[in-house]
Every structure is written in structure tokens, then in C-alpha cells.
Amino acid sequence: MPPQPSEHEKEKIERLRRAMYSRSLSDKLKDKERRELGQEVPIVGEEFVEPQAQVAGMRVAPRAIGFARTALWWLLGGAVVFFIGAVGFFSYYFLLGGGSLAASPGNIAIAISGPPQIAGSAPTELQIVVANRNKVALELADLIITYPEGTRSPTDFATDLQSQRISLGTIEAGGTRQGTVSAVFAGNEGEHADIKVELEYRIGGSSAIFAASSNYSVTFSSSPISLAVSGNNETISGQPVEMNLSIASNAEAPVKDVLVSAQYPFGFKLSSASPAPVDTTSAQSSSWKIGDLLPGQKRAITVRGTLSGEQGDDRVFHFAAGTRRDSNATSTAIETSLASNTFKIAISKPFLGLAVSVGGATGPNAIVGPGENVVVSVAWQNNLSTAITDAVIVAKLSGVPIDGTTVHTTDGFYRSNDDIVLWDKTTSGGALANLPPGAKGKVGFSFQMPRSDVLKDIVNPRLNISINAAGKRKSQTGVPENLQATANQRITVASDLTLEARGLYYSNPFGSVGPMPPKAGTETTYAIVFTVTNTTNKITGATVTGHLPPSVRWVGIYSPASEKLTFNQNDGTVTWDLGEVATGVGLGGSAPRQAAVAIGFTPSTSQIGQEAQLLQQITLTGTDAATGASVERTVKPVTTNISGDPGFSAAYSTVTK
After folding, report:
1. Residue 449: which of 469, 431, 463 has the closest Cα?
2. What b-and-e string marks burial along 642-655, b requiring 16 or more CB atoms within 10 Å of the CB?
3. What is the rounded CA–CA span in Å between residue 54 and residue 593?
4. What's the CA gap between 435 and 390, in Å, rounded?
5. How confident is the model over 330-381, as pLDDT tens digits?
6. Residue 656 half-sphere exposure, CB side, CA atoms within 13 Å?
7. 207 Ramachandran zone, left/alpha/beta (phi>0; psi -120 to 50)
8. Which domains can be identified in the chain, with CATH numbers?
9. Closest by alpha carbon to 393, among 430, 343, 432, 445?
10. Backbone angles phi, psi at 518, to 5 degrees
């Protein structure tokens, strides 16, 4: 059986076949060299391949080996970088840096020993040892000690000790120098302070100055001055508060030129202080000059004021005591703080809630008219979790004068000499002797507001009612034992604005035409005169309007010409624009505001025997500038019964045939 062609030969034959039948490749085939028949080219075929045992598949190196190789390369690279860096560092150190110095600061030891805690204002000693471990001497060595702010000389407390320089001369190789320094340190209890000790020196053959340094930290166990603040930690908005400051010396020697400062929180208003502050340029701060404090001496400062804010707010006061470098300086700013303290006051709900109503209406501003009877009611409630004893409620009247004979109260007492209405356990039948937690109640009084003739000379009259309540509760830490609560009510008296409208025939300033009494079918002319008066408050935007009936016409004449009067033909409205009406117009001999218009009346037969209307729906409107309230006055229609006209008879008031 002839041998079968190998796979390789089959592939070559297949490629040749494809090329022969390809249009693009057939022309590119080259002729092969022909061989003589019988020449055989030995081909090693698969028949010579001996069967072999199947070789197991090769395994790829695990990924961990690849990571290990990568890490090894990075480690090798890092070692090279470290080696180069080390060579560079030591080259710099020994050629240019400290290693090149004959006396390196690293070979100089500065040891500082002293108490870890010191008492402010007490002299403190520190022992300093300097050791030269270099192989050369340190020449012109100076020890420089820098003290914290506020340090004073132990020999003169008035002298500020900021730094100290001590000459040590030459310190030989391997030599030491030691000594003791003393100072009076200042600081608040618990604060830390650092003392810096520095050695400056030169070496032979060089003019350069080198330095080695060391720090020493201390803690203040006590302050030379103590500052304590006492007072109530709780108040209500608007209630007076008082704080007491106590400044005491803990020092063994006098503390010179002591200053005290106070920083007030938002909402606090200083009313007084004892002693008075020396610096009051800012409403939110105060300063006092205490002067020198002897050992054990105490000084006191009392601060009074009012604190305003929302319920639940906390207000923090900051107080400080200290000194300044120059006692002759004009500034009162503390440069060295020796003591500080804060005091927090919480704004709480009023112990006794007070609610005032006027005529049954609540609000900070009530409006009443002249001569009106005013009813004031004061509702109270105990807001504390404890009982209130011996409660007292006082209402103080101020402003416009009130006739004491018109003041009435059923459960209180009116004291006319100072216009006070008072309620306590004696006037209330014991109701205010003990108020349990959450207890509620009400007291009240009434009075008559003065009439317009009494108020005519008072501009923008107002009545202020100040309600004050007081009581007691069992003493608790940080809260007031004697309690206070306040409420205010303002009553503004509305201006007594008046309007009068009347008809004139016999006194008609424009002259009258037509029969009197008026006759059906015949026109009779009249004048309508408006008169406006005002008492206590200015009226703005004042306007008078009226409507002409169908039987009345607008003649088109009015007086005075300075006033603004108009007529609307569409709806028959007469308008007088007064603008501003001043106070006191028409009172005390002053002229009122007046305007007159001419009209013509032609009665209808249906009006015979009747009093006919000449002007109707007459209204005055405006705004009270003092109260902001709208004012409206309405008067009766003007009819043919013009009784206010001199010479007029009531018999002429009806229309005739």
C-alpha cells in the first residue's frame, strides 16, 4: 500500500490548488525547476516517528512567583535609593553640615531642672547645667533665657522680665557650667508655660555664632490672683441682674497695677457698676483699674444691668484680671492675664406669667377714645414647679392724667398719691398668699379716659400701664429667692375728629335763588357747608365724600378756592380732599377746616309735603398718625330742614306745590 501524504504535504498541495484557480495569484506563480525522473528527495515522514509516551502538560509558574519577583525588584531599587541618599546625607553632614564643625551643637547638653508645678507670683528657681562634649572649646559662650509673657523680676515685681543673658566665657572641651536663675512667673491655674534656654558660642578661628537650645515646661498650680463671680444663674428677659466680682491676691508680694475687664454678651445693657468703670467706650465691655494688690488683699466689683433674650437662651459673661507692662500707659487693655472666669445666665420663663388685656383685647398697644370707660384685666399664672408665697401685683399708671375718682377695682387697692393699683394677700382675701405650681388667676380695674376738652392741649396722648409682680420661693442654688416679673401695656387715645355738614339759604355765601320754601318744579339754590375739627393727633389722608340725589345738581361753585373739591358726574359724588388735618384744628380759638359748595334743588311733585334730602351718605375718612388706625366719621344727610341757618323757619322745611 503506497504511503499516504502527510498533513504538511496536503497543506502545500491545497495552497497550490487555490493559487492556480485564483485570478489574482495565478499569474504570479513561478515555474519550478524540473527534476529528472528517478531523483527522489528524501522526506522524513511520519512513518519514522516512533511512538512515545504522552508527556504531561507543562505547568505555568504560579502568580505568587511573579509577585515575588516584582517585590524583589522594588526592594532592590529601594536599597539602591537608600544607599545613594545615605551617601548624600553623610557627605553633606561631614563636608558642609554640623559634622563638619569642630564643635557641633549636638554635642552640647543643656539640662534644666526645677519644680514641675509652680505657684503664680511666687519666686521660682531653675538650675541649668551646660556640658561641652566636643573636642574643642566653646568661646564667648552666652546663656540666653527667654521667659513666658508676664514673668517678673524676683527683686522688683514691677519690672517685666522677658529674657536674660548670662556670660559663661570659655567652656573647655569636656567642661561643664552650672548655675541658678530665679524669676516670678504669672499664669492662670492649670496653664502651661515654656522657658527656652539657648547657648550661643563661637569656636576658634571662626567669627560665626553657633547655638544650641533646650526647652523646659512648667504648669501653674495656682494663679497670683483669683477672680470669683457670684450671682443668679437664672433670670427672665428684661429683669435686672446683678453680678458680684471678688478679686483676691494669692501672691507673697504685692501685685502691681491690676486691671479687671468684662466682656458682656448680646442683650445685656449695663445700668451701673460699683466702682464705676474707667473705660466705657464700648457698650459691650468695661474696664476697671484696681491698682496694687497686697498679699491676701481683696477687692470687690458689682455689675448691674438688664438682660434681654428669648426663653431658653444662655448668655455668657467673660471676666479677666491681669496687668500691663507699662503702668503709665493710657490703655486699659490687659497684656498679661493672671486670672479669668466666665459666668453663664440662663433666660427662663417668667416665674409668674402676666397677660394684660384692655377691653377684652390683648396686644401691646390698645386704642381708646376720649371719655371712654376702659376695663383692664391682668391674668397671672405660676410657671414654677414650686409654690410662690406672698405674691404682690402692682399696676402703675403714667402718661395722660387720670381722674382718680373714676378708678375702680374689686379685689385691689388704688393708691391715688402715686397712681398705683395694688393687689396682695390682704386685698385678695388671701388668694395671693400661696400660689401652688400651675395656679392661675385674674385681677382687674377700670377707669375713664379724659374727655376731649381735657386732652385738647396734649399732643399724641398716651397712657402707659406697667405691671410688676413679686413673690418668694424656697431658696435654691443659683436662682433668685425674691422673684420679679413685668408686663407693659400702652393705651393710645384716638383723636376726636369731628365732621359737620349743614345747608344754608339765608346765609348762602354764594347768594340764593328760588322760592323758600322750595316749590315743586322750581329750582332753589343752597350752599352745603362742611366743617372739620380735630383734637390730639394728626390725621393724614383725610377725605370727605357725599352724594347728590337725582333732584339736586352741582352748580360748580365752591369756596375757598384753596381747598380741593371735585364732582363726579357719573355717580353724583362730591369729594373734598383735605389731606392732612393738624392737631387742635377748630379748638382753643383756632379756625376749623371748612368748605362750601353750591347746589340747586328742583323738587318733584312726589316730594310735596316732605323734607327732601340735599346731600346724603356724608362720610369723613382718614388715618390717625399717632395710632395708625383708620378713622371714619359719618353724619346725617343734609335736608331741606336747614334749622342751623339764621332766619330759617321750620315751616319752610317741606316742599310745596
Report:
1. 463
2. beebeebeeebbbb
3. 133
4. 8
5. 778 888 788 889 999 988 888 888 999 999 888 888 889 889 999 999 999 9
6. 10
7. alpha
8. 107-222 (2.60.40.10), 225-347 (2.60.40.3670), 355-493 (2.60.40.10), 498-652 (2.60.40.1170)
9. 432
10. -65, 145
